[in-house]
Specification:
By secondary structure, the protein is mostly helical. It has 2 domains: 7-195 and 315-357, Rossmann fold (3-Layer(aba) Sandwich), CATH 3.40.50.620; 217-310, Tyrosyl-Transfer RNA Synthetase. The chain has helices at 20-36, 48-51, 59-76, 92-101, 107-111, 114-123, 131-134, 136-146, 159-176, 219-227, 248-256, 259-265, 272-281, 286-312, 315-343, 352-363; strands spanning 7-12, 41-46, 84-87, 151-153, 184-186. The strands form 2 sheets. Strands 1-2-3 form a 3-stranded parallel sheet. Strands 4-5 form a two-stranded parallel sheet. Strand 4, helix 9 (159-176) and strand 5 (184-186) form a beta-alpha-beta unit. The longest helix has 29 residues, at 315-343. The two termini are 42 Å apart.
Length: 365
């Protein structure tokens, strides 16, 4: 089915404050897309229902973190006059659509999903995998298609989810007729932003691993985390040749650094390539590199910290933004679900011609 509008759907699970991995992987791009004027509608979802699939015994954690995520959205520049920020569980149409999609996906197909496999290995559920968690790729497909999203900006690790979504769309349209839209994935343009490692350099940035730099971290906290970053264990003396591969500081520089930063913070180099060349041949210390990175991060995140502090003093207004965004999401969801129910022939009470047909059928008896 050809889309009539260009629509974005994206979001995050409210399991804690957002970190700079979220920022380079999706948040920064969302703001750019929001301000591009190229999209008719943008929906950003706080996926609390999905978060409950592995926090079912701790609902207060999810409840408290909804406001944390909303504050992070507003602080990075998500504009509620241009973007609808909504709460997943407050859009019941998503649950209904998920239920219908469960008939289109086999258990074996879900078991082959590499993202699900990875998540299950990380969580190691005691007593078996909750069905809700196992089926969350189907829920994600409902999230995307209810809003007829044409574009989904996500990290590379979400590609299997988009593939499954498009499989569901194609199967639904084949059975019931053209109703749903196949979304396109929009990956980060910078390779370093695909999966930013944690400060320890050993894995991707993750709250559970304690290796995150949060958007809301103070300048003091940021300095402490940058200074503790993993670099090159073989670079023992300044004059030793340094290695870039696996060096967290340079991975972060790849993600954040621009040529203009050298003019401001390190004028002895024109660009990052010159700095890398010096490091690899020896003569450039890790401390100097970390100081340069810290200056860049502070220049990027100080305005974000200031906006967050401002919104923290306007909490009732933040909840009103969420309420209005959720109502806009429900309005869109009702329209799509009406089309879905009509295509599936289960809109019994809205189809007056069907009621008349049944009436004539029995009047002949």
């Amino acid at each position: 089915m050809e889309p009539k509008e260009k629509i974005i759907l994206t979001g995050d699970r409210p399991t804690g404050k957002l970190h700079i991995g979220h920022y380079v992987g999706s948040l920064r791009r969302r703001v750019e897309l929001q301000n591009s004027g190229e999209y008719d509608k943008i929906f950003i979802m706080i996926a609390d229902a999905q978060a409950l699939t592995d926090n079912f015994d701790n609902p207060d954690k999810v409840r408290q973190n909804i406001i944390e995520v909303a504050l992070d959205y507003l602080s990075v520049g998500i504009d509620p006059t241009k973007t609808h920020i909504f709460v997943q569980s407050a859009v019941p149409e998503l649950t209904e659509l998920t239920f219908y999609y469960m008939n289109l996906v086999s258990v074996q197909r879900l078991q082959r999903n590499p993202t699900v496999k990875t998540e299950l290995e990380m969580r190691k559920f005691d007593g078996g995998t909750p069905t809700g968690f196992f089926c969350y790729p189907i829920s994600q497909a409902a999230d995307i298609t209810l809003f007829k999203a044409t574009t989904v900006p996500v990290g590379e690790d979400q590609k299997p989810m988009l593939e499954l979504t498009n499989e569901i769309v194609r199967r639904f349209n084949h059975i019931y007729g053209d109703v749903l839209i196949e979304p396109q994935i929009l990956l980060p343009g910078n390779q370093a932003c695909m999966r930013l490692p944690g400060t320890d350099g050993k894995s991707k940035m993750s709250k559970s691993l304690g290796n995150c730099i949060y958007l809301s971290d103070s300048a003091k906290e940021l300095k402490k985390k940058v200074n503790s970053m993993f670099t090159d264990p073989l670079h023992l003396r300044i004059e030793d040749p340094g290695h870039l591969e696996g060096n967290t500081v340079f991975t972060y520089l790849d993600a954040f650094c621009e040529d203009a930063d050298f003019e401001q913070f390190m004028p002895e180099y024109k660009n990052l390539d010159e700095m890398k060349a010096h490091y690899t041949r020896g003569g450039l210390g890790d401390g100097t590199c970390k100081k340069f990175l810290l200056n860049i991060l502070n220049s990027r995140f100080e305005p974000i910290r200031e906006r967050r502090a401002m919104w923290e003093q306007r909490i009732p207004e933040v909840y009103e933004i969420l309420r209005q965004g959720t109502e806009a999401a429900r309005e869109q969801g009702r329209r799509t679900l009406g089309e879905v129910r009509h295509a599936m022939r289960i809109d019994y009470f809205e189809d007056s011609s069907f009621i008349e047909e049944q009436s004539q059928r029995f009047s002949k008896n």
